[in-house]
Amino acid sequence: MHNVTVTTELGGQRCARTVRGLITAGRLGPGEQLVEQSLVEVCGVSRNTLREGYRILADEGLVVHVPHRGVFVSSPGVAEVRDVYTARRVVECGALRERAGAGLAVGGGPAAGGDPAVVVLEQLVGRAREAAADGRWSEVGDLNMAVHQQWVDLAGSRWLSAAAKGLLAHARLAFRTLADPGGLHSAFVEENARVVGHVAAGEFGAAADLLEGYLHRAEGLVVDAMR
């Protein structure tokens, strides 16, 4: 019985990770009902294990169970958005400050003695610029999430990285409530580039300071758009 319980819990965590990823990627939006049979097939688990995943996601505030109707993706309100941005500033800026003083070479490339993770950041920013120029806003949103996750991952802390995954899923839900998410993303493509520029130069403190102001501005834009 103990082994069955452990297996269900591990499978539930895997299901939660899958659904969380779908939310972060914008594939599941606020108020959308989760189709149990489809997710059982996607996750390759039993219904009981999937429901354990739902429980984990409900604890995180990403889904809600409506009696006699089913499980739905949460629809964030203004208070939730403010809370998420407060936590994002602590986690994302804190992760960059944790790396302050590490000293990566300008440009971030391996040939310059830099961190390959910074090369990934620069590539993500480049792809976001191209997608924005073509008006592919859903793709810009995906890349924006990836940039934010990547600079948290630079801290090398699995706890910070895990916290960022949950927070970014909540942030993507907030973006999906906006009438013009492209307008929000377009405003911050170059902000991301400036933060990454500081990271590539090893200026993690400056990157964190810039990001903190950026997240305050983003919070204001999202909240204003929701009202």
Topology:
Blueprint: H1 2-24, H2 36-43, H3 47-59, E1 63-66, E2 70-73, H4 78-98, H5 116-133, H6 137-153, H7 158-176, H8 181-200, H9 204-226
Antiparallel strand pairs: 1-2
GO molecular function: DNA binding; DNA-binding transcription factor activity
InterPro entries: GntR_C, TF_FadR/GntR_C, Tscrpt_reg_HTH_GntR, WH-like_DNA-bd_sf, WH_DNA-bd_sf
Keywords: DNA-binding, Transcription, Transcription regulation
Summarize the structure in words.
With 227 residues, the chain is mainly alpha-helical. The protein has two domains: 11-73, Winged helix-like DNA-binding domain superfamily/Winged helix DNA-binding domain (Arc Repressor Mutant, subunit A, Orthogonal Bundle), CATH 1.10.10.10; 78-226, Up-down Bundle (Four Helix Bundle (Hemerythrin (Met), subunit A)), CATH 1.20.120.530. Helix 5 runs antiparallel to helix 8 (181-200). A hairpin with a 3-residue loop joins strand 1 and strand 2. Mean pLDDT is 87; it is low at 1-6 and 103-113. It has helices at 2-24, 36-43, 47-59, 78-98, 116-133, 137-153, 158-176, 181-200, 204-226, and strands at 63-66, 70-73. Strands 1-2 form a two-stranded antiparallel sheet.
How many domains make up the 3D coordinates? 2
Taking pLDDT < 50 over at least 5 consecutive residues as the criterion, the unreliable ranges are 1-6, 103-113
Contiguous helical run count: 9
Average pLDDT confidence is 87
Reading off the top of the CATH hierarchy, the class of the largest domain is best stated as Mainly Alpha
Distance linking N and C termini: 50 Å
CATH topology of the largest domain: Four Helix Bundle (Hemerythrin (Met), subunit A)
Main beta-sheet strand count, sense and barrel state = 2 strands, antiparallel
Specify the CATH architecture of the largest domain. Up-down Bundle
Secondary structure: helix percent: over 70%
| SS strand fraction | under 5%
Order of helices and strands: HHHEEHHHHHH
Annotation, overall tally of beta strands: 2
Structural class: mainly alpha
